[in-house]
């Protein structure tokens, strides 16, 4: 890069000053991750806006790592964000206002410039696609007390939440983990995600009506957007992106369950994508396409981070919830195009769906052939993810 252009980025970009971080600590920002060297003092040339910072402390030889701790920041132009390593707690903490002012001046005077690594600008576009709907207000609405997201604070938080066999095993492992023992259980440490009902029940409604209500999640989606998201589709998508990032980069089980709930809600709609919320589903398909494209790419590379990755083959097997949801959704779009040739001239262009389908087929070898159907809803026999269909007597 041209020296003058680089200096301009140094001055107007944000800086993350990290003091006393031990060597071999794994440190990441957005889609980038590094092993800390002896001279590391942070990252410079950060684009203003939302970013996710995460790290994992290591043993002295750099062979063992603790669970990841992560937090979101909303960096302003030329802003200096200062954190200092707490040796006792093995985490980054804020400094006093006086220290922050002094260190900010030192950064502006380029005193730390040689010890600051540059943000990899070529990866910024990828990060923007993963975080395009996350705003400062969304971060403040969802982040836990103190801002730190870590799986070690989630032990026992989701006792009544339905989980897969693997999720239950991980939850049990956390309960017996040495890291869980240090968490103060009297204080809520989890994120403030929107509660998404798994099954919709309504007083006075039974049988076929109740089954129909749960087959198509459109009414639930409309209710949540109105009551929980202030009428904003972007806020819902922002939470979806927040949860995905906290899950994949921050390795939070709670975040994965929220991402799973939101994806299940949206893919579980039949009426909304075709009529009432076509624009939302155009945006949703783009969001999940970029999420899975990034997640699968990282998985293929097999990057070893030193921490237990949550995105492994079992999440993405042919028996996973995502495969079943996508299969039903693709069938819905395909049937709609057959029924009404003009229907897919809407903003929800079929190209978006086809790109997602091809990504899953090419990356995972998934097939989306339907084997049985009830009232147009396709699912495999003995499919635990399929809706419960109540067959009433004539």
Features:
394 residues; alpha+beta; 5-stranded mixed sheet; 5-stranded antiparallel sheet; 12 strands; disordered C terminus
Shape: elongated
Structural class: alpha+beta
Percent of residues in β-strands:
5-15%
Helicity, in percent? Answer: 40-55%
Kindly state the mean pLDDT as a whole number?
A: 78
Give me the Rg, rounded. 23 Å
Please provide the count of β strands. Answer: 12
The count of helical stretches stands at 13
The end-to-end span amounts to: 75 Å
How is the main sheet built?
A: 5 strands, mixed
Oligomer: single chain
Low-confidence blocks of residues: 176-183, 299-310, 338-347, 371-385, 389-394
- The main sheet orders its strands as 8-7-1-4-9
SSE blueprint:
Elements: H1 3-12, E1 14-19, E2 26-29, E3 32-35, E4 42-46, E5 49-56, E6 69-75, E7 80-86, E8 91-94, H2 97-108, E9 117-118, H3 124-131, H4 136-142, E10 149-150, H5 165-175, H6 207-215, H7 218-227, H8 233-248, H9 253-267, H10 272-276, H11 278-301, H12 321-339, H13 350-364, E11 373-374, E12 377-378
Parallel strand pairs: 1-7, 4-9
Antiparallel strand pairs: 1-4, 2-3, 2-5, 5-6, 6-10, 7-8, 11-12
């Amino acid at each position: 890069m041209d020296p003058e252009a680089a200096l301009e980025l140094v001055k107007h970009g944000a800086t993350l000053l990290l003091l006393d971080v031990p060597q071999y600590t794994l440190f990441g920002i957005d889609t980038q991750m590094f092993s800390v060297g002896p001279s590391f003092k942070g990252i410079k040339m950060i684009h203003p806006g939302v970013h996710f910072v995460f790290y994992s402390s290591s043993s002295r030889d750099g062979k063992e790592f603790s669970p990841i701790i992560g937090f979101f920041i909303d960096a302003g132009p030329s802003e200096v964000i200062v954190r200092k390593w707490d040796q006792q707690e093995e985490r980054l903490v804020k400094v006093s206002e006086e220290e922050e002012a002094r260190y900010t001046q030192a950064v502006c005077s380029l005193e730390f410039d040689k010890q600051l690594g540059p943000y990899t600008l070529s990866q910024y576009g990828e990060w923007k696609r993963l975080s395009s709907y996350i705003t400062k207000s969304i971060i403040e609405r969802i982040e836990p007390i103190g801002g730190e997201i870590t799986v070690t604070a989630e032990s026992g938080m989701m006792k009544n939440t339905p989980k897969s066999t693997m999720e239950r095993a991980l939850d049990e492992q956390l309960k017996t983990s040495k890291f869980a023992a240090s968490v103060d259980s009297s204080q809520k440490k989890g994120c403030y995600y929107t509660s998404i009902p798994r099954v919709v029940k309504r007083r006075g409604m039974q049988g076929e009506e109740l089954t129909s209500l749960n087959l198509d999640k459109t009414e639930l989606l409309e209710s949540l957007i109105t009551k929980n998201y202030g009428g904003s589709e972007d806020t819902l998508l922002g939470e979806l992106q927040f949860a995905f990032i906290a899950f994949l980069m921050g390795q939070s089980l709670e975040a994965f369950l929220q991402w799973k709930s939101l994806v299940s809600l949206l893919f579980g709609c039949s009426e909304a994508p075709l009529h009432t919320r076509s624009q939302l589903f155009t945006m949703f398909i783009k969001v999940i396409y970029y999420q899975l494209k990034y997640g699968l790419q990282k998985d293929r590379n097999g990057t070893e981070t030193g921490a237990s990755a949550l995105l492994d083959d079992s999440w993405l097997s042919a028996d996973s919830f995502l495969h079943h949801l996508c299969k039903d959704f693709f069938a819905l779009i395909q049937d709609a195009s057959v029924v009404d040739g003009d229907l897919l001239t809407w903003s929800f262009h079929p190209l978006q769906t086809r790109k997602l389908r091809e990504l899953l087929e090419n990356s995972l070898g998934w097939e989306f052939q339907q084997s049985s159907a009830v009232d147009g809803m396709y699912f495999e026999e003995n499919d635990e993810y399929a809706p419960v269909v109540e067959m009433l007597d004539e």
